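Re: beginner question about structure tokens

> Can someone show what the tokenized structure looks like for a real chain? I only ever see the sequence side.

Sure, here's an example I had lying around. Input first:
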Amino acid sequence: MSYLGETLVDVSTHPEYKHYTTNDWAMSFISRYGQFDGDHHKAWVLDQVVRCLKNTPIVVKEARWTDHEPEYRIITGNPSEEYKEWVKDMTTGVNEGYDYDTGIAP
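And the corresponding structure tokens:
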């Protein structure tokens, strides 16, 4: 089996993903990664959900091999301004001293 590489998927035309809402993307991260043990992994899932709900772009790549089914790899893109503002609000003002943890991907 040889790895053939990844290609970017246009989610706006993909048969399944073109219908996804921000809530669908958030639930996708929960269902794909929410079962991993460890507080650092749980924190990462929560952060990814917030990014989805705060309009951070979703990036989907299709990985292919010669003798294997393709695999979709879903990540969040560059953080949206809405996400950055939310994190700022979570660590300042009445939340001063709150340590926002982006966690570690499983």
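Each token stands for a local structural state, so reading them left to right follows the chain. The two ends are 24 Å apart (CA to CA).
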